[in-house]
Give the backbone structure.
Amino acid sequence: MSKKVLILSGDGIGPEILAEAIKVLNVLSVDFGLDIDLDNGLIGGAAIDAVGNPLPDETLDKAKEADAILLGAVGGPKWEPLDIANRPEKGLLKIRSELGLFANLRPALTAPQLVEASALKPEVVSGLDIMIVRELTGGIYFGQPRGIRELDNGEKEGFNTLVYSESEIRRIGHVAFKAAMKRDRRVCSIDKANVLEATELWREVMIDISKDYPEVELTHMYVDNAAMQLVRTPKQFDVMVTTNMFGDILSDLASMLTGSIGMLPSASLDKNGKGMYEPIHGSAPDIAGKNIANPLATILSVAMMLRYSLAEAEQANRVEKAVDVVLSAGYRTPDITSTGMKNVGTIEMGDAVVAALKG
Ligand code: NAD
């Protein structure tokens, strides 16, 4: 039976990069027998403009039915004046929580061809291969109470709540340890246990879970030190597991080690392995509509989707190999270019991957 994939292009560069990912899926289906059924849905600013809601019920229903979801990005200056509860990003937070996508896997891998594109010295990043496991449906982004209130003295006060239950920590911990078992068997848990009780519990639970994985080495690091260590000696890490907000920040930081935010895919998984796949970057309104966005993070998200949710490891390898071939041939979008390379736009980069797939 065909696997159902829901395409949510979203805003800004979302539709441009998704168009290239769809080209790749079409080649896999026509030339390599991938049996999938693509459908489209509205999310984010595009959905607000069309129906006044960043996550229409119709999109949520389709997402629940799909085997996997491929997302571009949401948001942009057009919708910033809106109340925070009605902004495009709310659609994204809601789809993650409605589908129970609690585990966000963000590989930070430096392609050998892009070592020079990193902001760091080649010897620091060459061979880098980190997996950041970020908790995605809890913590301060979802904790209640939250809001902006007026105090008795008339001053305004903004407040949010950092809250983690033991079971929330436990399930993300298991994802991290299982990922480590397939890698170098090292987990570094990132917290701020010296200041925040919620992460004191985080640390306790991680230590408890580690007893189930005697072959995996567990270490702990405070988030401020982790930010420093990621820039100083990033290759010391194998799997990093952390909270929603710390993971948000550290994974963007890690992206710059690899050359560009335009290169990094991500997977957000539920407890059964169903997932939503998206590049880690946002809608990049500053470059939208210019045919210069790098589509490779989205194309590599397709590979993750094939591997994790569609049980198509061979097709995933095919896509990753094609991206490797294209980088080796010198194709570069502006975010990863250097002298002597073949400078191309979004569409041309997608075409190059398609050509590499077809051999
Ligand atoms: P961003 O990731 O969109 O852009 C940061 C910088 O990286 C920009 O200079 C941009 O041009 C560049 N960039 C991003 N993707 C690129 C690509 N594929 N190729 C080349 N360069 C790329 O982050 P931002 O500017 O902080 O946010 C812009 C909007 O995106 C905001 O509305 C924000 O809320 C939203 N956002 C959405 C998501 C998501 O949908 N998952 C994630 C982060 C931010």
